[in-house]
Amino acid sequence: MPSVSFVGRVLRVLPPAGGADAKSRSLIVANERDYVRVFFRDEKAELLDEINVGDVLLIENAYAGGKHATKTISVGRYARVKKLDLEVKALRDVGATHLTTLAVARPERNHVCVAGIDEHGNWLRLQSIYEEDVFPQGRAPNFRNLCVSKVYVDEWRGGNPRLEDRFFVFGGGVVRELGDEEKRRFLEEHLDESVDAVFKSGRTLGLIKPRILRAYEDRRARREGRTYEQYIRFDFRDGAGRLFRGWSCRCLSFYDFWNEFKRRKRLFFGYRMLRFLRRHTVYFCIGLTHTDYGFKNLEYGAFPMVVGVHIV
């Protein structure tokens, strides 16, 4: 197998896919024109304890490989890794995408679903994105609802790709927040007529304006240790008047809003929350899960859910 060399700046150190004891770890390294995902295998994984974001690395005698070989190299037994005192303007010549964020979901085992619409009107869902990518330590969040973020993305080469899936290479942070009237115009411009108009068109992301009939916490939530995990669900009608029940809400900011509202207005909370939602214009960013969970006869081939809640 031919050896590979690469010089670049470390943009991301990815968490181990198999937990803390995983034998393979990876990071994203980029030069001015391109990036690679570098896997450190077996004893070489210990090298990552001494590598930080921002370091410039010279990687020699690595090999192209892995399940998806494109833009992937592996640091094995005979590879050499050295830090360089060199200026590298990572991704300088690569076109960035400006994503207007419509969904930042609650983390699930450190993974976060982030979705939105790019400057060309295309829906995108970022893959291989983690809590530390969304909420970097010591810095402002990289994504906020109805804000424009600068991101670098690539084709998603993982299993079971959905139409909107893209590999998240790097995030350049929030560059602009939409103004109040701009938010309203943006939501109306990208509004879908109904749930069917989204999911039966081949897309797995969309935006609807629901009539909310009920918003409640799921009392059947699974128990973890001695506490119950909180789930919020909606019953609603879409723009075509069709009734949907029990859709799970995964919007992180709405959970924060819900809990703060409940803290301030505990008396008749359910009634007051529903009244609040009905007095405002609410938009749902909706999405489909993967389709490979072994369940059959699902209407849309997967589980639909509310991944973003926008109250105007």
What's the quick description here?
The protein has 312 residues and is mainly beta.
Account of the 3D structure:
By secondary structure, this protein is mainly beta. It folds into three domains: 3-84, Nucleic acid-binding proteins (OB fold (Dihydrolipoamide Acetyltransferase, E2P), Beta Barrel), CATH 2.40.50; 97-177, OB fold (Dihydrolipoamide Acetyltransferase, E2P) (Beta Barrel), CATH 2.40.50; 187-311. The chain is 14% helix and 40% strand. It contains five helices and 19 strands. The protein has a five-stranded mixed β-barrel with strand order 1-2-3-5-4. The mean pLDDT is 91.
User: Could you state the order of secondary-structure elements as H and E?
Assistant: EEEEEEEEEHEEHHEEEEEEHHEE
Cα shape: elongated
Distance between the termini: 57 Å
User: Which structural class best describes the helix and strand composition?
Assistant: mainly beta
Number of strands: 19
Q: Strand order within the widest sheet?
A: 1-2-3-5-4
Task: From the alpha carbons, calculate the radius of gyration and give it in angstroms.
Answer: 22 Å
Residue share in β-strands: 35-45%
Integer average pLDDT? 91
